[in-house]
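Subject: Re: docking follow-up (flavin mononucleotide)

Dear J.,

Thanks for your patience while I sorted out the input files. As discussed at Tuesday's group meeting, I've set up the holo structure prediction with flavin mononucleotide included as the bound ligand rather than trying to dock it afterwards. The sequence and the ligand SMILES I used are pasted below, so you can double-check that they match what you have on your end before we go further.
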Amino acid sequence: MSKKTILVTGGCRSGKSRYALSLSQRFKGKKIFLATAQALDEEMRERIEIHKKERGKDWTAIEEPLDPVSALKREGRREGLLIVDCLTLWICNLMMAGWDRESILKRVHELVSECQRAHCSVALITNEVGAGIVPENKLGRDFRDIAGEANQLAAQSFDEVTLMVSGIPVAVKRPGEEAAPAVDAGKSPHEFTETKKQGLYEAIYKRRDVRHFTSRAVDPAALGKILHAAHHAGSVGFMQPWNFIVIDDPETKRKVKKNFQAANSAAALNYQGDRKKLYGSLKLEGIVEAPINICVTCDSSRLGPHVLGRDTIRETDVYSVCCAIQNLWLAARAEGLAVGWLSILSREQLKRDLEIPDRVTPVAYLCIGHTEDFYEKPMLETRGWETRLPLSALIYYNKWNGSPGSFSVALPD
Ligand SMILES: Cc1cc2nc3c(=O)[nH]c(=O)nc-3n(C[C@H](O)[C@H](O)[C@H](O)COP(=O)(O)O)c2cc1C
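The structure tokens for the complex came back this morning:
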């Protein structure tokens, strides 16, 4: 059984925890019970004891009333089943600790993402708290609203949702089913569902240029998928000017490495003092370590001398290849493969080494493989070489350097 994310919801005493425990029959590996409950009084202490007895000894129990996200990050690396019991109690703990709605929902979003990232299956238990009468006080109403929103967040992206009714599990969502998009007059009917959007944005924001590779081989089928994605990029006049030279031959890689070393020594001359030292300490390629290298090229003669749309801006053929490379980079991230773009090379030497004909330009030399960890931020940012520019300063209106008029872009936080 492959890894799953399962949301178990229902009323109090509806059998949620028991159902979640029974899921361990479906998944082999370690069994971890991550409890958000706090034994603040005698009644709660008794309840916790009863739950412990119910579970038996083969479960590892972790108590984490405020930060199940970090606990999940730590404990979710191995195959098995991890139960988080429960989302609503955790929200309650955060509210009691003074967290506001926005910060709580942001944290819930992080928990949901962490559940997706974990190597183990995760069953997240929650409560359906909105079915009764409107709570009498504001705290109660706030809690009900936050819990409802948090449940929706999890249900949207989890593989399965089960509602417990009087001890009977009712399947609300099963793999392959998508929750219906919310009906909203302001939304485009072509908009992706939240789950699909999250996947796309995750690939974009978690894509990294990687230079550290493990020796783990690249699955030919995964490589096929990412090249297929590259081949579906836009191109001027539908020219599709790209080719992909897939390199696994150690001797060819060695030649490219020699090319890099010469180009890198020349590039280092651009820097002085501390900057030079820092440049020298940066790892700027992974040619030999990466099991696969790909040279992506542009054949400017692909559709003959005239290509629809290219007469005025000749370089649009190279732009098209860059679009294909970006598709490849994002698809690779989704497949768990790391990509490093290497441009510190003599193009002419590369053409000779790969026997590329004159009319064809190498656009990118990519190192592809698995990595221990995708960097959280661009490596050049972490190493203090550059920082990300503020996007708001890069957006102009109606002319170069123009200020907003009647319309201005609303940027996310
Ligand atoms: C056209 C292009 C050429 C690049 N060449 C190199 C290179 O030769 N060596 C290197 O280490 N990184 C190279 N990079 C990676 C950039 O340094 C990296 O994209 C940037 O620092 C932002 O980091 P991120 O891709 O992880 O977001 C290149 C990236 C692009 C788009």
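A couple of observations from a first look. The chain is about 40% helix and 15% strand. The longest strand covers residues 360-369.

Let me know if you'd like me to rerun anything.

Best regards,
T.
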